[in-house]
Design brief:
Strand content: under 5%
Number of domains: 1
Length: 113
């Protein structure tokens, strides 16, 4: 995609957290008690990204859309909605994959849901 922006700070940490969980989620071996911990990790990493973000305004606006989707997915994983916690993990994966489409991040690899 020719319109991609420079990488945002710390986003590889999102993929690292999700990469560990995805195989268990796929096999339905990620129990409901584990989702809130994963959600807390995602929210912590969102806070880090916001605090350390120094992107130009258009890139910053795009990043904040991705971050909002990450937080929304984390809230589903926390059980704050009627949706299954698994759906929150899928939402986080989709947000991370969107990040990879919008930003040039060396070594970034999309995760499958």
């Amino acid at each position: 995609m020719g319109n991609r922006r420079a990488a945002a700070p710390g986003h590889e940490r999102f993929n690292q957290a999700m990469a560990k969980a995805v195989p268990l989620i796929r096999k339905n071996q990620f129990d409901n008690a584990a989702y809130p911990a994963l959600a807390a990790t995602i929210k912590q990493k969102v806070a880090y990204a916001v605090e350390h973000c120094k992107l130009e305004p258009k890139a910053d606006a795009t990043l904040h859309l991705v971050l909002a989707d990450l937080v929304a997915g984390a809230e589903v994983m926390e059980g704050k909605t009627a949706s299954p916690r698994h759906d929150g993990a899928v939402g986080v994966l989709q947000a991370l994959n969107a990040y990879g489409r919008y930003f040039q991040h060396p070594g970034w690899q999309a995760l499958r849901d």
